[in-house]
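Contributing new records

If you add data, match the layout below exactly. Sequence lines come first and carry their own label; structure lines follow with theirs. Keep one chain per record. Anything else will be rejected by the validation script.
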Amino acid sequence: MAAALDDLDRKILSELQQDAEQSLDEIARKVGSSKTPVWNRIRRMKEQGVISRQTVILDAEALGLEACFFVLIRTSEHEAEWQRKFLKALKERPEVLEAHRLAGDIDYILKVRVKNARAYDTFYQALISEVKIYNVTALLSMEEIKSTTMLPV
């Protein structure tokens, strides 16, 4: 169930998404409130699970992770044990940034960040050695046009 948020909550969330390192004073000034009500609202939104955690965003290319692959997976296995092993394998791989189970012809899509094609192949070989996969298609992203963690609030 979605949390009940008012305009001030949404303004605070927008500011936090832009830069969570801002001081409470800065956020309060920008949203037209004072420090204590802003702090109380942030605390409430954390308790409600609207704000799940705060982190930093790293530049993948600056870290040498220049290749982004979208991996389309089709499986002929749908048993609980296969799914448990598959999900465990994904969660243990730091290269997997996102994993989604899909409706339609493709069962899963992964977003994988690695140094290069050779590193992707190493990832791929390790994955298929752990779980049986019917079909894998890897699509190399030639250019990242938009990437954001900001949700439309």
